[in-house]
Amino acid sequence: MTVLRTLLPIILAMLLPASGALAETSGLIRLTDRDDLFGWEAVGRVDIGKGGFCTGVLIAPDQVLTAAHCVYDKQGRAVDAAEIHFRAGLRDGVVIAERGVARYVAARGYDPRAGMTAENIRRDVALLELSEPIPASIAAPFRLHGRGTKGQRVSVVSYGANRDKAPSWQRECGLNWRAEGIMEFNCDVIFGSSGAPVFARDGNRARILSLVSGGNWDSAEKIAYGMDLPDVVATLKRDLRAALPATAADTGFRRIEVGTNRRASGAKFAKP
């Protein structure tokens, strides 16, 4: 815990809301055409309530991973599953597939009242069960990778503030360090990227190493934080089968409106 105690104040400072919009850089590729999206169809936008969104990814035809803090409203209440929709491969109003959410569970131990603690980063994962499966022939789910190692090269596909109409792919960024279930990446993400999959290569295939929980959006040196997934996801699957309810509490996160710099209280997802 020594490393995390030392770094946590820095992490918390980095998680303050950004003051400006993120500009597209040469490191980000907008997946505009159907050919560009090939292979990434399972990544989509998780639309929440009246315009809020995060990023999510299929891990089974009827299961989507996203960040736990996305499923709480600004009053800290668990969002009704009926208000959540997954739009696989959304680009400029066109989707590969769109489904409602029948139910969901957030990771055990995640406490939205506690804000961005080390334990919350480890547990910032939610599993959504779709109302109907999306056939793998349309959007093939991704498998999980094992635990990451320092210096490992990764990639990220995400939606975000001012780039919410189509996914952006960062072909390569790096894992700076991993300690006690938390990873730091030098990946270019922003509000709305919460829940975005961080991919590692396994031979010729991409597998999900982590999800974006938070990061430093407002700096020349971009930083993102994620968590180890295998144990958390295994527990979430068991909880989903048992239909355990999500916990409602105060999130302590922030929300902004897409296309602007205006901030509002609530969960850390972007709101068009």
CATH superfamily: Trypsin-like serine proteases
- The third-level CATH topology is Thrombin, subunit H
- What count of helical segments does DSSP give? 4
Number of domains: 1
Strand portion: 35-45%
The helix/strand class is mainly beta
Which key phrases capture this entry?
272 residues, mainly beta, Thrombin, subunit H, six-stranded antiparallel beta barrel, 4 helices, 12% helix, globular, EC 3.4.21.-, Glutamyl_endopeptidase
Outline:
With 272 residues, the protein is mainly beta. The chain has a single domain, classed as Thrombin, subunit H. It is built from 4 helices and 17 strands.
How would you portray this structure in words?
- The protein has helices at 2-14, 34-37, 118-122, 230-241; strands spanning 28-30, 43-48, 52-60, 63-66, 84-88, 97-106, 126-130, 153-160, 163-179, 182-185, 197-202, 205-211, 214-216, 223-227, 254-257, 263-265, 270-271.
- The protein is mainly beta and 272 residues long.
- The protein has a single domain, classed as Thrombin, subunit H.
- Strand 13 (214-216) and strand 14 form a beta hairpin.
- It is globular, with a radius of gyration of 16 Å.
- The termini are far apart.
- Its EC number is 3.4.21.-.
